[in-house]
Amino acid sequence: MTLVVATTNRHKLGEIARILDGLDCAVESISAHASAVAPQETGRTFAENARLKARYYGRLVPHLTVADDSGLEVDGLDGEPGVRSARFGGPTYPEKFDLIYGRLRARAALGSPARFVCAVAAVEGGRVVFEAAGTIEGRIADRPAGDGGFGYDPIFFYPPFGCTLAEVSAERKAAVSHRGRAFRKLRDFLVSRVYS
């Protein structure tokens, strides 16, 4: 079986491939199958955007196609950046971090509770055949820390680990992360299809 992941982000693809490791399934990037302008992410929720992307890319390939939408919700910023996480602030993550810390400082909300959210949708033959979500609760770190992970990981402090997600191994992060939780549900779905 071939599973096409609707991403060109090599970090994300690697993380997903590790979660699905061991399945009789080739995990491939959409860029190996089709070249297309990414769709506008017009959904109001992570689930809507995941579904939108899965349907869009699913029309371009004859394989099971999965898309996810994920981001950071900060309580002290009324849930921002939320579904706009990738487009929030400047083009680099240090710029995004500066904006988040500046806004939290202005609201006297440093250390605000926060969560990562990931929604996953899989499409086959034009039909959504699977959807799931995963979250991880934590808080905004006192300062960015760590050089592992990617995206907002350096500012997401996970209390059970006592550090940010950028300060742990990829395997340890995947065991608890929002994407890990959502894609393990996809893994269970794929296993059930093979053995049902």
Write structural notes for this entry:
By secondary structure, the protein is an alpha/beta fold. It has a seven-stranded mixed sheet with strand order 2-1-3-4-5-6-7. The longest helix has 18 residues. The mean pLDDT is 93.
How many helical stretches? Answer: 5
User: Low-confidence parts lasting 5 or more residues at pLDDT below 50?
Assistant: none
Order of strands, main sheet, comes to 2-1-3-4-5-6-7
**What is the H-and-E element order?**
EHEHEHEEEEHH
Major sheet? 7 strands, mixed
Task: Tell me how many strands there are.
Answer: 7
| Rg, Cα atoms, Å | 17 Å
Percent strand equals: 25-35%
Distance between the termini: 15 Å
Estimate the global geometry from the Cα principal axes. globular
Chain-averaged pLDDT: 93
Helical residue percent band: 25-40%
Supply the helix-strand structural class.
alpha/beta
Jot down its keywords.
26% strand; 32% helix; 196 residues; alpha/beta; 7-stranded mixed beta sheet
